[in-house]
Amino acid sequence: MTPSNLDRPEEPFTRATYDWDIEKLYSDLANAKLEFAPHTRRGLTPVEKRHLCGLLCGYSPAEMAVLLNKQIKGVEVDLSKTLYRYIEILTNRPRNALKNWRDAIDWLVIAGYKKQPKTSSGAVLKATLQHSDSILSAAISPDGQLLATGSHDSTVKVWSLHSGELLRTICGHSTAVLLVAFSPASKTLLTRSRAGTVKLWNLQNGEQMKRLADVHRHESVAVSPDWQILAIGTTCGTVKLQHLNSGQLLQVLKGYQGDDISAIALSPNGKMLIASGLNATSGFCRATVTLWELPGGEVRRTFGSENYVAITPDSQILVCHSNKTIALWNLETGELLHSVQTGIRITSAAAISPDGKYFAVGCFDGTVRLWNLRGQLLHALEGHSGPVSAVAIGQLGDTLVSGSDNGTVKVWQLRI
Fold it and tell me: Where are the beta strands (DSSP E) in 161-202?
């Protein structure tokens, strides 16, 4: 008997055969189906295969219904009664845990069924890791061995950057973890929660070493590259500098032209601090980006009005971004070097490579976009099915980590 055309992917679903180990997935899901419903037809039906390939191509149930000329509700019911249940069994998830089609894709990626893709940048996806909730922070250790991720699930996970093995889960916060940062020696981890607690952790045993500070949930926190200073941007427009280990208040910076400081950056040379945020008195419009000289504490100059800021490793260029705009400023002269209209909404996630050759921003379309310091788009890394909410770059600049609001963490090997 000639096999039905439904037994093999057709347009627009043929891409599934290039991106996924489709035959193995058919076989393994058929076994999961047998476990789920022992008395039904063995193997996946042609309709189940077609729906699976649609999901693997990134089509939502509604989009598949249009492409297949079906009712949306019918496709959703078919998926919830068949493929979703098989995928739960195949990936060792609880019954009825799968409710979102994007999770189906991510779970199969984590299980190893997606082929290792090369993006247009020559980047290779090395690993996909998972939290139970959205990723809010990520950091790569200076020695290049470890990856730390903070999540809305209140945990910090520490992974081997090379193997993707989960080494430790830190459960010392009661709310979402907004910041993770490694010490220069890669032995200690600093974390900050949405509730405002800032803590230090021993990475050898996972034990809490010290509670550094308690800040307001809307106050921003940053640590200096040499790990000597903890900077706290307050909701009243000042920046408090305290000694990281002793907790001694060193200085209070004033003169910020706004109210709510949402982002802080300390220059690697220790001579500058930048703050950005909102101005409540102006209807919560973006406030003017402000630069203080250190250690004097005088306001040296102001820049544009983007929400998020970062400083290049040579302390020469300020990178600001918000919404669909990226601005690059000369910190010495105050000159606007480049203003980029990205055409795509940018999240708060951003990182500059340690060699200063490029910076990466997370986007709401699920991509990570890489730009050089001349304002030219280099690459777009595609792989997340939701907004990218955290980005980190390794010391050599060839490893990038991106985290999404659906809990996935992806490790990329770059060729810039």
Answer: 166-170, 177-182, 188-193, 197-202
H or E, element range at 389: strand 388-393
Q: For the segment 44-67, what is each residue's pLDDT rounded down to a tens digit?
A: 999 999 999 988 887 889 888 888
The pLDDT tens digits of the residues spanning 338-393 come to 988 888 889 999 999 998 989 999 999 899 999 999 888 888 898 888 899 999 99
Q: What's phi and psi for 232, nearest 5 deg?
A: -125, 115
Q: What's the rounded Cα separation, in Å, for the pair 34 and 182?
A: 47
Contact in structure between 120 and 415 (CB atoms under 8 Å): no
Taking alpha carbons only, the member of 348, 358, 361 closest to residue 263 is: 348
Beta partners for 276?
263
| Coil, helix or strand at residue 380 | strand
Residue 242 in contact with residue 222, Cβ under 8 Å?
no
| Rg, Å, the chain Cα set | 24
Q: Is the pLDDT of residue 127 over 90?
A: no
Q: Which two structure tokens, joined as six digits, stand for 365?
A: 């379309």
Question: Is residue 369 classed as helix, strand or coil in its secondary structure?
Answer: strand
Mean pLDDT of the chain: 88
Q: Compute the C-alpha angle 227/147/190, nearest 5°.
A: 30
Q: Which residues of 323-354 are buried (b: 16+ CB within 10 A; e: fewer)?
A: eebbbbbebeeeeebbebebeeebbbbbbbbb
Cis amide leading into 295 (omega within 30): yes
Amino acid identity of 186? Answer: S
Beta strands 388-393 and 377-382 are: unpaired
Give yes or no for a contact between 398 and 386, defined as CB atoms under 8 angstroms apart: no
| Antiparallel, parallel or unpaired: β 377-382 and 325-330 | unpaired
Let me know: does 410 contact 128? Beta carbons within 8 Å. Answer: yes
Rounded CA separation 222/232 (Å): 7
Higher pLDDT, 319 or 99: 319
Residue spans of beta strands (DSSP E) within 306-387: 308-311, 317-322, 325-330, 336-341, 346-352, 358-363, 367-372, 377-382
Predicted confidence at residue 314, as pLDDT, reads 94
Residue 32 half-sphere exposure, CB side, CA atoms within 13 Å?
19
pTM of the full predicted structure? 0.72
